[in-house]
Every structure is written in C-alpha cells, then in structure tokens.
Write a structure and sequence with these properties.
Elements (H helix, E strand, L loop, with lengths): L1 E5 L2 E4 L3 H12 L4 E4 L16 E3 L7 H11 L6 H16 L8 E4 L2 E4 L8 H13 L3 E3 L2 E9 L2 E9 L4 E6 L2 E4 L20 H9 L3 E2 L4 E8 L12 H4 L2 E3 L6 H4 L7 H4 L1 H13 L8 E4 L1 H6 L11 H7 L7 E10 L2 E2 L12 E3 L16 H21 L8 H14 L8 H15 L3 E2 L1 H18 L8 H25 L8 E2 L11 E8 L2 E8 L5
Parallel strand pairs: 1-10, 2-3, 2-11, 3-7, 11-18, 19-20
Antiparallel strand pairs: 4-6, 5-6, 8-9, 9-10, 12-17, 12-21, 13-16, 14-15, 15-16, 21-22
C-alpha cells in the first residue's frame, strides 16, 4: 500500500529551521506538513545544541556581529546572507518567546531554556507543542528519498515509513528542505547519528547546486577516554587547565591559538593544532591531554553545569589525579545548497533553510550563529515559499513516482548481505581517517577509492522492511554527501578555516572563492567562483 499526503508546503526536517518555517507558514494560513526521520523535534542538531544564539542584543552591535561572522568564516561567507543574518538576528531570536520558548537575553544574544533544561530541548519541544496545538500535521519516522519534478518544477516527493513499512507519496506546491547537515558522517561526532546529509543528496539530484562542501567543522574539546562518551568539555577545566601533548608542551601556545573562548572563536585552529600533534606522534591513541588537576581539586560543584559534572571528572575520569584524553569531534557542516537570502534555489519549487543551506558561515562557523541562522532563514524561506505557492496547483505525481516506488520496494527484497550499520561504520571510519581535520592528496584519493568500494558493497545490503530499510535508504544519501565533501576538499588546494591540507598548509589569497558542485548527467561538475561574483 502507498500512503498519500497532500499539502501546500512540505517541510523536510523538524529541527530549528523546519519548526520556525512551519510556524511562519501556519500563521499565513497555509496547509503545511512536516516530515522527519525520527519523532518530531528529536534526532536533529538543534535539540543537542548548547541553546546559545549570537545576535546584536544586550549591547552587541550589528557591526560587531558582522565582523565576528566574517572573521570566523575567513571571508568566504556570502555577503548577502551574512547581512541578512546580522540585521534580522536580534529581532528574530527574541520572537521565540511567542512560541513557548524561555528566552534569556544577555550581551551578544540569548540563551533559550528554563533552568534545568537539557541542551536544545527548550528550543525544539516547545515549538513542536505550539505547532501541534495549532493543528499542524507531522509525519514521523519517514525518510524522503527523492524529490519529484514535473519538467523543471519540484511537485512531490517519495518517502519510506519505517513504522508503517510503506512508501509515502507527498504531493505539494513547494518543498522547504530543512534537513540539517552531515556531521554524523565522521566516526567521532556529537551530532545525532541520523545527521548524514540527506538534504545535500536530495537537492543535488533535483538539480540544485552545492557550495563550500569541504568546510566541515570539528569542535576541538571532547572526551576521548576509552569507554567514555564523547562529552564536550568546557568551563573551568579548559579556561584554567592546560591542553598538552605527551611532551608536556602547551598546544595552544605552541601553535599560536590565542582567540578565546575556544568554544566560540578557535574551533578550527585548535582542532587543527591538536590533530597536528597527533599526526606528528605527540598524541595518545588519536588524542591529546587536558591537565586540569589543580582545577578539579579546588573546584566547586556549581561550576560544572555543562556536559560533565565535578563528580564525573573525579569518579569516572580521575581528572584530579592525572591528565585525561581529549580529541576533536565532528560538529557542523558549513557547506550546503546554494540559495539566496529568501532560501530560493536554482530549482523551481525548492527552498532551503538551516544547516543544509550553504554560504552563511564561510570556512568556519562562529559559535552561536547556527541557531540564529535557522531562526532567521527558516522564517524567510517559508514566506518566500508561500509567495511561490500562491498561483500554483497540485500535480498528480503517481506516474512520475513509479520508478522510485519500485526501487524502494526492490530494496526490501534482499534477505542476505551486508547490514546498513556495518557499511555506515566503515564510511564513518573512512571519512574520519582520510577526509577529516587533516587532509592531503594521498588521503583524499584513499577516501575516494574507499568510498567507491563502499558504494559497491551497498548494492548488496540486507534491507528488510522497517528500520533496517530506512537505514539502507539513508546510507545511499550518506555516500553521496561524503562524495561531495571529498570532491570539494580535493579541489581546494590551500588551508582555510576548518579545511586544512598538510600538502597546502597556508591560506592563499587566490583561493578567496567558493567551490560549486552541480550535477552534469551522472557526473559532478566543479566550478570556482570568486567571492563577490555572481554564481
């Protein structure tokens, strides 16, 4: 049986961008449907975010916000998108209080969530409740596998429900892609494991262009102790402790990483410095050390309200007795779909917002800008999408969808083969080892060759109906997203922001440009565009 769903606007994703877009669309009287691979509001990067928004509030000026954003992004940000972000950011983030979020203003932005709220739950869950109270429809546990076009216009989508174990056909006037990034393509990540780049694949195969896919951000400070969860590390242990190699050398001092706080301003440079020490043999099993013994011994419990408590540092890590291991962790994807400040792409009927959209953050994202981004551009994309919908009619997509429906159904027939989880684990290992924080030509070639082998293996997947088939369909798009990252990293022969090449270690002025990927028949076409030029 095939399930049919109709709407004016289909929103793919229920993180910050998708929810804010839905709120705007509902307020304008549209029939809107949100679809997500997991229960609404969960398993996205917003719900695991630290709840901090950067904006011109509490005394910070628009000029300061603009400067922070361009400086962190190494000047390859899209100027139009940055200007929209900084001009509208303050007003947009304060509006969240209207939708059930607890907003706490401070210098340079807001934090969202009541005392005791865990990470970003104070962002997504209130907005989900707000929308459900308004009668907005959510379609959960469904993965969208293809956008359907009538001539040059997107008019529908095909998905698969792991709960109902049926194909789902979505019929709409416009689609807003708010599916997040691809941080979970790497072995070490703090992103939910479903953050594997679906949106990049969907948009690319629909004819949209991608930009800046080589720029993958790694958060430098996360536990790397055996059997310990990869909790983010911040607060007094970092501010007053020392990040060292096995020789006892101060890594930030050695590599001239001076901008603090590291959590906001030095994500790229500190991650790079730490992994260079590992690469040169001065690490411990892929990690470096954080010596915070004196800090832990003299600390008060209320200083540790983040990821790990004082008791955890003492009882689990014995951090008051010895240095403990830390290593970077995959955190965010700067690249994404090419779009203007209204989320319009080159494909008629396709709009984007949030992490799946490229250009705002350049080569490295400043801390706090991700949540402001999803709030500003989620709203804008919804408004533009509904303007587009005004004189459009629904199109019958049954016949146009038949090939994709048949492909999904054939996928479920295999009863032997590799499991999707096994191939995904190998993919994550490959991306971490060969296309991660440190890269060079040989590593990237190895990454590409390994990716080709994984594609071959993926054709022999065991994919029984239910969660396993959803995972198999997810893997196909993850392989695409990985290829986009590798191809762009091969192309950029310099080091800039989060992209560091051992064979081209310097930032070069002639690379003050963006790398555009587009589909040409079955191949990837690569184009270079200088910053400031039309693309």
């Amino acid at each position: 049986m095939v399930i049919h769903v109709q709407s004016d606007l289909l929103i793919i994703g229920t993180g910050g961008a998708g929810l804010r877009a839905a709120i705007e669309a509902e307020s304008m009287g549209a029939k809107v449907v949100l679809v997500s691979k997991a229960p609404a509001g969960y398993n996205n990067t917003t719900i695991v975010a630290g709840s901090g928004y950067l904006a011109a509030l509490g005394g910070m000026t628009v000029d300061e916000h603009r400067d922070h954003t361009f400086t962190a992004g190494k000047m390859v940000n899209d100027p139009e998108l940055v200007e929209t972000l900084v001009q509208e950011g303050g007003e947009r983030v304060l509006e969240l209080s209207k939708y059930g979020c607890v907003v706490n203003e401070h210098f340079g932005g807001i934090n969202v969530g009541a005392p005791g709220t865990v990470l970003g739950q104070g962002i997504t869950l209130p907005q989900v409740k707000y929308l459900k109270d308004k009668g907005v429809a959510f379609v959960e546990n469904v993965i969208v596998t293809k956008l359907i076009k009538d001539d040059d216009r997107v008019v529908g989508a095909v998905g698969y429900s792991s709960k109902d174990m049926d194909v789902v056909l979505f019929q709409f006037k416009a689609v807003l892609l708010a599916s997040g990034g691809a941080g979970a393509l790497f072995k070490r990540t703090d992103c939910p494991l479903k953050t594997t780049g679906d949106g990049y694949s969907l948009a690319f195969h629909a004819g949209a262009r991608l930009r800046d896919m080589e720029f993958c951000q790694f958060f430098p400070l996360a536990l790397a102790e055996p059997d310990a969860p990869p909790l983010l590390v911040d607060g007094p242990v970092v501010w007053e402790g020392k990040i060292i190699n096995v020789l006892g050398e101060d890594i930030p001092a050695k590599h001239n990483v001076t901008e603090r706080p590291y959590i906001a301003k030095s994500r790229d440079t500190l991650s790079r410095a730490m992994m260079i020490e590992v690469h040169e043999g001065n690490g411990v099993e892929g990690a470096v050390l954080l010596d915070a013994r004196d800090v832990i011994l003299n600390a008060e419990p209320d200083q540790f309200l983040g990821m790990a408590s004082l008791d955890y540092y003492k009882e689990k890590l014995r951090a008051h007795e010895r240095p403990f291991r830390i290593a970077p962790i995959s955190h965010f994807t700067m690249g994404g779909v090419v779009a203007n400040s209204d989320g319009e792409t080159a494909v008629e009927g396709l709009f984007v917002a949030g992490e799946v959209m490229g250009g705002i953050h350049g080569a490295n994202r400043h801390g706090g800008n991700a949540l402001t981004d999803v709030t500003v551009f989620g709203r804008r994309a919804a408004r533009k999408a509904l303007e587009y919908c005004a004189d459009r009619e629904l199109v019958d997509i049954d016949e146009m969808s038949s090939d994709e429906v048949e492909r999904i159904e054939k996928r479920s027939k295999r009863e032997t083969g590799f499991t999707p989880a096994a191939i995904m684990n190998r993919l994550r290992e490959n991306m971490w080892e060969n296309a991660g924080i440190l890269r060079d030509a040989d590593m990237l070639v190895a990454a590409y060759e390994n990716l080709s082998e994984l594609r071959d293996s993926s054709r022999l997947l065991l994919a029984l109906h239910g969660r396993q088939l959803l995972a198999a369909l997810e893997l196909e798009m993850a392989l695409d997203a990985s290829e986009f990252i590798i191809r762009a990293a091969m192309e950029r022969k310099e080091s800039r922001g989060a992209h560091f090449r051992l064979d081209y270690p310097e930032e070069r002025e002639e690379w003050l440009k963006t790398i555009i990927l587009s589909k040409q028949n079955k191949a990837i076409k690569v184009t270079h565009v200088k910053i400031g030029e039309a693309y």
